[in-house]
Amino acid sequence: MAKGIWTLIEHRDGQIRKITYEIISEARRLADASAQDVTAVYLGTSLDDSTLESLGKYGADKIIVVNDPSLEPYTTDAYVEALEALIKEREPLVFLMGASTQGKDLSGRLGGRLGVAVAQDCTKFSMEGEKLAATRPIYAGKAYATVTFENSLPQIATARPNVMSIQVFDEGKKASLEKVNLTIDASKLKTKVVDVIKEAAGKVDLTEADKIVSGGRGMKGPENFKILEDLAAVIGASVGASRAAVDAGWRPHSDQVGQTGKVVSPNLYIACGISGAIQHLAGMGTSKIIVAINKDPDAPIFQKADYGVVGDLFEVVPCLTEEAKKYVQQ
Amino acid sequence: MNIVALIKQVPDTETQIKIAPDKKNIVKDDIKWIMNPYDEFGVEEALRIKEKFGGEVTVVGLGPKRVTEALRTALAMGADKAVLISDDALEGSDSIATAKALAAALKDIPYDIIFTGQRGIDDDLGVVGAMVADMLGIPHISLGIKVEVLKDENKVRVNRPIEGQTVVIEAPMPVLITAQKGLNEPRYASLPGIMKAKKKPLAEKKLADLGLDPKDFGEGSRKLKILELNPPPERKAGKKVEGETPQEKAANLAKLLHEEAKVI
Questions:
Q1: CA-CA distance, A285 to A141, in Å (whole number)?
Q2: Smallest Cα–Cα separation from A114: which of B62, B207, B214, B130?
Q3: Considering only CB atoms, which chain A residues are within 8 Å of B219?
């Protein structure tokens, strides 16, 4: 019989990714509500035992460790081979991953392999007995669907980054480690990472950013994004853009927030010169605090904003940068 | 080179989504349907590869008859032929069932590369591409923003942006690649293209034609059950930040963000 809540430890370059703490904490909450244990799976060779054990404080009871050189760096093929073997042998009830680029890539292929459903990019979970219910934005957040699984074990779901809160349950708890030897069939590994192109150091991806300053059509040109970058540098934010600004060629595609761009969920989202087209609102609606700065008092963005400033962004934003310095330096 | 593009039809991004009284569906009247924007990048990339290496581009769609419009758009852009998988029994199918039908249709179509969008902008699951690839036993690479075909080595090299970096991945053909924004700028269908598209072959297949049993599809076969749909959580009415001058407004805003929202 299937049992246990499993999560995947996402890591890169010898570092555990933040989403890992989010999903382990969430797994603990779900396990406590359903009398299950939390097992985290570690696939790789770069993390040491004490680092893995320390995940106990976020709620992991046990870590399954598979050290195989083919698992570093992440490739879909190697991960799916390893997870398929582990899951078929041990039959977990739930398998949670982060809805990062890795989790989204992996979950689909794993679901296909096991013939089970995947609930992607969820913002809320609950357990009803052994059944997982997941709530997920659809149509980029214009509606929310609550879904459950039928004839589908494990129940595979991914959690939207920045949504599940990180919780320390027991500062002193160490997770137990179980090392598993798996033979990964090299002939099944077709994809190969041949190069990695790093972005500017210190740039946090929008999907993981704690704060975002975004600019739209009201920025009037690419050179003016400098004032957003100045504000972002002071408050520790990443810079995003609306589709209008990206389609005008002012900002790269990777900066676009919205239904056809990135769906983001920061603690603070500052929209500058963005009117708030429905497809943009869809991409940032789960932000915790939304600020809108816009000349047009009737701009739809103000209906979504916690704080609205009616004014010229070219005047307000530089002043805000100066004002913010006072608080950041405190 | 034989290239296939899998396409889906979705509501236009400007669509207001209304939830039906049964809370399981959206209201589908008055929706303007478009080709899923990410699938359009896939079609464009397929055409560019064909223009470079020769060969044939087949577009495959799944869904009700209206999906024909999206297929005709792809034909007008320059695809050579189209296949529509359409069967009443498909209505309400989830990702796995959809992937199964697409994989079955692909058994009869030659391919070196299969493109599809990184996700549909309707249910935002983004799993069908990977599922199809797994069912076909071929590798997949997701979020392609640059695709190089190394024909002599029978492989592709794809740039895949992940958080904070781009990984370059190689895989042997046949391979499935999911398209991300930034891959290319899709062309518009030209008038002669639209005229020509009307004469291009568009085959319609039912599940039985693909050797599939209709009872494995549709609402009843769903492994991901929709309990209910709801509108997004309402956001409380916000505060207008007061001030006579931009300086005052900025000062008040910074104070609110620090003291009340506690985010700076």
A1: 7
A2: B130
A3: none
CATH classification of the domain holding B18: 3.40.50.620
Helix (H, G, I), strand (E, B) or coil at B117: strand
Q: How far apart are CA B207 and CA B86, in angstroms?
A: 8
d(CA B14, CA A282): 10
Question: What is the structure's pLDDT at B234?
Answer: 83
B229 part of a folded domain? no
Residue A197 located in a structural domain: no
Q: What's the CA gap between A251 and A244, in Å, rounded?
A: 10
If asked whether residues A213 and A312 sit together in one domain, one would say: yes
Length of chain B: 264
pLDDT in tens, chain B (264 residues): 999 999 999 999 989 999 999 999 999 988 999 999 999 999 999 999 999 999 999 999 999 999 999 999 999 999 999 999 999 999 999 999 999 999 999 999 999 999 999 999 999 999 999 999 999 999 999 999 999 999 999 999 999 999 989 999 999 999 999 999 999 999 999 999 999 999 999 999 999 999 999 999 999 999 999 999 999 988 877 899 999 999 999 999 999 999 999 999
Q: Any idea what DSSP says for residue A293? A: E
Cβ A138 vs Cβ B124: under 8 Å:
yes
Query: What is the span of the domain harbouring residue A321?
Result: 206-329
Give a yes or no: residue B227 inside a domain.
Answer: no
Whether A323 and B250 lie within 8 Å, measured CB to CB? yes
Point out which residues pair with A43 in neighbouring strands: A66
Q: Grade residue A140 by pLDDT with cuts at 50, 70 and 90.
A: confident
For an interface test with B, give the residue of A198, A238, A323, A325 to mutate (most B CBs within 10 A): A323
Q: Which two tokens stand for residue B210?
A: 């693909």
The model scores a pTM over 0.90: yes
- Residues in chain A with CB shorter than 8 Å from the CB of B254 are 320, 323-324, 326-327
Rg (CA), chain B: 22
**Separation CA B208–CA B200 (nearest Å):** 24
Q: Give which of B33, B127, B168, B252 to mutate to test A binding, by max A Cβ within 10 Å.
A: B127
Asked if A273 contacts A217 with a C-beta cutoff of 8 angstroms, the reply is yes
ipTM: 0.95
